[in-house]
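Below is how a single chain appears once it has passed through the pipeline. First comes the sequence as given, then the structure the pipeline wrote out for it. We keep one example in the README because the format questions we get most often are answered faster by looking than by reading.
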Amino acid sequence: MGNPLVTIIIASYNSGKTIRRALDSVETQTLQDWECLIVDGASKDDTIDIVKEFAAQDARFRYISEPDKGIYDAFNKGWKNARGEWIYYLGSDDWLEPKGLQGLANEAERKFAIISGDTNLIRTDGSVRILLSGMPNLGCHQGMIMQRCIMEEMGGFDMKYKIIADYDLIVRILNRDKGMKIVHVVVANFQVGGTSQSLSNILTYSKERYEINKKFGMLKHPLISTVKTVLKKYGSVLIRNVIGRIK
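Resulting structure:
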């Protein structure tokens, strides 16, 4: 049997409450030419027990479970161990739309390093906002597939960035004239409230965003772009927190 078209990589740590939903969404994809590699950080809960259930029933599920240095270390382990031509990253608390990967695969061309679709952002109150792929924010990794060979060429994720190494990788790819194709199909559902949304990380996020934006050859005003992104991202989080306390 040949290598799969897409390797779906899920980084997990103590994800027992959510990972079954993520794996179910992988198994029910209309696109069936995939493998799913779970890169676990030596979970202490039942995460691996759940993963083993899926692996026992379907050989396309594989897993690694060992201590790591954070999510981007896990992401790098993922693409290095992947067999697919294209790489897709799904959060352990996120889930794919049934036709999500098919929508990207239908548009996959080797002249593009990235095929980028849209993502549903699921807020803590259950409301949904669609994050469209494209400029200026480029979208998020839950809506993208990337060519594995290009990721290897770029050296993968730069672990000096603690929050948005995924954004940095996309920028480096685009700066090297490796194209991105925009496809307006909803690929996945992204549960808002992770590390990058935490108010305690606003300074780190802002610093990383500005540093990466300065490298982004397509941006004329990196500081202005950074301020706009930070205000939009954390302003909405702050407003929701205030409203939640009033209620």
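The chain has one domain: 6-193.

See the next section for the split statistics.
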